[in-house]
Amino acid sequence: IWGVDSIEAGFEKLQQLPSRPETVVTRGEKGAIGLDVDGKIYEVASFTITPNNAVGAGDSFNAGYLFARRNGKSMQESIRFAHAVAAIRISENPLPTLAQVTNLLGDAHA
Hints:
Elements: H1 7-15, E1 23-26, E2 32-35, E3 41-44, H2 57-70, H3 75-92, H4 98-109
Antiparallel strand pairs: 1-2, 2-3
């Protein structure tokens, strides 16, 4: 549709628009990349985990991202939060709790 061969090239096209949607693209082990409405790009690394079951990883990421944004977090913070939710989901199998996500985020900063 866009005639580009990379996420970055697609984001460059979006940056040329007078207005743009907030956009986040997940890249598995390579983390995620986001473009905010002001045209700023954020690259956020994912957590290093051993996957147990990848079913629901994308849905978990999306839910975590939306939860964080609706609770006032920045795009970068929200992507990191979403990575934590997805990491717990695919490594431990249960639906992550807020306490589990907060613990993982806290451990990552130690």
